[in-house]
Design goal:
By secondary structure, this protein is α+β, with helices and mostly antiparallel strands. It has helices at about 25-40, 85-90, 110-115, 135-140; strands at about 15, 50-55, 60-65, 75, 100-105, 120-125. The two termini are about 20 Å apart.
Length: about 140
């Protein structure tokens, strides 16, 4: 669940997903979203928790994606999106966690997006999201 109304902040509204055809397009998409997120966060110095991207999936559910300062990736996969766990595991080579928060190593974002590409309905920037679970809280306190 987002803790703000995405339609109330310019730049955070959902965008229909367009299939990315190759790795270069995915890298360009990642770079564009990183720049846009940095622009939106420019007036919020010191905020290093909970910002990122939200993917709404075609068959239900959402995945919130946050990268830490060290380059690790946290995913909050909502209960309605639990069906996508095998795709995430196959794309990132990480076993599913006991809860809904996944911890992925550096370099996992590109293969993750490549694996999810055909399953995403929309994406939007997220300025604040509270990741659930003790593991996620430990990750944030390390930053």
């Amino acid at each position: 669940m987002d803790y703000f109304d995405p339609d109330s902040i310019p730049g955070t509204e959902p965008h229909r997903w367009l299939m990315l055809e190759n790795i270069q397009e995915i890298e360009a998409w990642m770079d564009l979203n990183d720049r846009e997120l940095r622009k939106l966060l420019a007036d919020k110095p010191g905020q290093t928790q909970g910002q990122g991207i939200c993917f709404s999936l075609l068959h239900g559910g959402e995945i919130y994606v946050h990268s830490t300062e060290t380059g690790d990736i946290l995913l909050d996969v909502t209960a309605d999106a639990a069906w996508v766990a095998p795709v995430i595991s196959a794309a990132t080579r990480v076993a599913p966690p006991a809860g809904q928060v996944w911890a992925l190593p550096q370099g996992s974002l590109l293969p993750l997006i490549l694996g999810l590409n055909s399953l995403i309905a929309t994406s939007h920037l997220v300025l604040e999201h509270r990741y659930r679970g003790a593991f996620a809280q430990r990750q944030f306190h390390r930053e």
